[in-house]
Amino acid sequence: MNPASPSTDPMPPPGLSWGIKRSFIDYIGGLPDGSVSAADGATVLESGLFCFTADASDYDAARGTGVLRFLGDVRLSGHHGMLLVRLLDPWITFSGGSGVLSISTGDGGGQDRSTVGFVRAEAPVDVEGTLVWQHADVVISPEGSELFDGQYAAGQPMDPLFIRART
Predict the structure, then answer these.
(1) In the Cβ-directed half-sphere of 7, how many Cα atoms lie within 13 Å?
(2) pTM above threshold 0.70
(3) Which of 3, 29, 120, 160 has the fewest CB atoms within 10 Å, i.e. the most exposed one?
(4) CB-CB contact of 43 with 17 (8 Å)
(5) If 0-12 CB within 10 Å is exposed, 13-18 middle and 19+ buried, where does residue 18 land?
(6) Which residues pair with 92 in a beta bridge?
(7) CB proximity list for 7: less than 8 A, separation 6 or greater
(8) CB 103, CB 113: distance < 8 Å
(9) Residue 111 in contact with residue 63, Cβ under 8 Å?
């Protein structure tokens, strides 16, 4: 791992911070009945990013492989219940610098997963005993496109992720 280098970027808070897709969040906020909620380990940061609490992980920093697990429940809704996007307990499964971002379907105690997107990230930096990814690119997967009711085509960029996790 590379030692931490000075940076003007603030360190992300512990966990997984993600804006999802700013244009979508703005759209929800503009609806008369639009609702954004974060619970069960997820919070909304002052920056507007959603932060999911870190959970037990088995990421191997030397190999760049393994699973980073996070807890939280983010719900975005509107159109009198016709629109509901739920992001529950996200995980990122890394293999060779790329990863798969998945969420729990709510079945199987969190083991049943749906792929939301694909992650491309530089190797993390070790900062005082935590691994930090300052900016990881995300593109939506075919299943993620369905989650957003086809509003974003598979392969379309989403907002970047910021991760700070102990392993």
Answers:
(1) 13
(2) yes
(3) 3
(4) no
(5) buried
(6) 68, 101
(7) 134
(8) yes
(9) no
The β-bridge partners of 104 are 113
| Number of Cα atoms under 13 Å in the Cβ half of residue 124 | 28
Report in angstroms the alpha-carbon separations of 106 from 7, 57, 88, 144: 38, 19, 7, 16
- Does 144 reside within a domain? yes
pLDDT band at 7 (very low <50, low <70, confident <90, very high): very low
Q: Is the confidence at residue 3, as pLDDT, over 90?
A: no
125-127/130-140 β-pairing:
antiparallel
Query: What is the extent of the structural domain holding 159?
Result: 15-165
Please count the structural domains in the chain: 1
Is residue 86 domain-resident? yes
Q: Residue 109: is it exposed, middle or buried by C-beta count within 10 angstroms (0-12/13-18/19+)?
A: exposed
Residues in the chain: 167
Kindly tell me if the per-residue pLDDT of 1 is higher than 60: no
What tokens does 38 get?
Answer: 């974060």
Q: 58-111 pLDDT, tens per residue?
A: 999 899 999 999 999 999 999 998 899 999 999 999 997 799 999 998 866 667
Q: Can you read off the two tokens belonging to residue 58?
A: 């088995």
